[in-house]
Hints:
Structural class: alpha/beta
Order of helices and strands: HEHEHEHEHEHEEHEHEHEHEEHEEEEE
Strand content: 15-25%
Shape: elongated
CATH class of the largest domain: Alpha Beta
Largest sheet: 8 strands, mixed
CATH topology of the largest domain: TIM Barrel
CATH superfamily of the largest domain: Alanine racemase
Bound molecules: ligand LLP
Helix content: 25-40%
Number of strands: 17
CATH architecture of the largest domain: Alpha-Beta Barrel
Number of helices: 11
Amino acid sequence: MTQFPIAKFRQHSTPFYFYDLELLHSTLDALKDGIGKSPFFVHYALKANTNPQLLAAIVESGFGADCVSGGEIKAAVNAGFESSKIFFAGVGKGDDEIDYALDHHIGCFNVESMPELELIAEMASNKAVVANVALRVNPNIDAHTHHYITTGLNENKFGIALELLDNAVAYCQKQPNLRLIGLHFHIGSQITDLEPYRLLCERINDLQDKYASKGIKFDLINVGGGLGIDYDNPDQNPVPDFKAFFDLFRKELHLSADQQLHFELGRSVVAQCGSLITKVIYVKEGLGKKFVIVDAGMTDLLRPALYQAHHKIENITSTATETDRYDVVGPICESSDCFGVDEILPITRRGDLIALRSAGAYGEIMAMHQYNMRSVPGCLVEE
Ligand code: LLP
């Protein structure tokens, strides 16, 4: 089990997110090592976590930013990401957000539809600027992940269908205020089997061949994010296998010497360095069940309720050697406010601290502050 600074935790009001910056630094180093000398560029997906201290470490490592709203672009600018390394994705970019992005001369818009392309062209023309765009293609590939976080199928709202891509490419070529620099893909999130990425490479190779035969070449290919992490064994696998991930693209994707390959990794960068720390309020005996009721709920960590996700649960203060079986639940008035069923924990008592592991991605950022009128979870970053 990870050694947590328990004495510090005891002085902090619960629940709170704890971030281990040392682990984040090791993860960023592994990411750099995995890239090696390849022309690969990682844009950290801010949607996973915008904690300023985490962003500072990521900026320092030289990575770019993948943003999906004006708010995220603002956070990226404030954190010090170079504007040329800020990319703007999202299926419903608002006028004011595009306006803000154009004014900040961001590196690229990942465009998802014809009406969006038309709007960006019009707004860029009004400002007499040229916007770099990449077209997000829906490759119709099953990422075999939870259906709420799969994005690359025809039935999903994301991207431009392969059949409609020619139109969008032709439109870009006619517009003086658009510079078509690439193709963008993203097939889903928490992908642990690399096979869908191999299929994606095949799809991209075919597309590139097709366009090359028409004399059209792209400066960059962006394969999105999605690399999964080990939620069951955060201590055995604290750093994802970036090398295997990048090796697959090195092997399967045909790129010419002057082409760049871009990635938008979120979860794999920040998930393992964060834990939600919560205190046991009561241990309640039910009929044939025992409930550990903690002071964090689905309002603080939504993933279990929304995606039936499981975060490893550890009692980090119990000294008991005997164990018992518990359902670990939050205080919210919803049956889905449950972090674990039949969890084997050391004998657990009121006041014990519980860590919900691997919560650095899509944890704090998805916390809700209205429901049941609860307060925002706190935050503690260990340098
Ligand atoms: N690029 C695009 C276009 C995306 O939509 C996403 C995530 C990413 C990159 C980053 O993917 P990552 O490397 O983090 O898997 N809230 C869900 C995950 C939603 C992911 C949305 N898109 C969860 O907690 O599992």
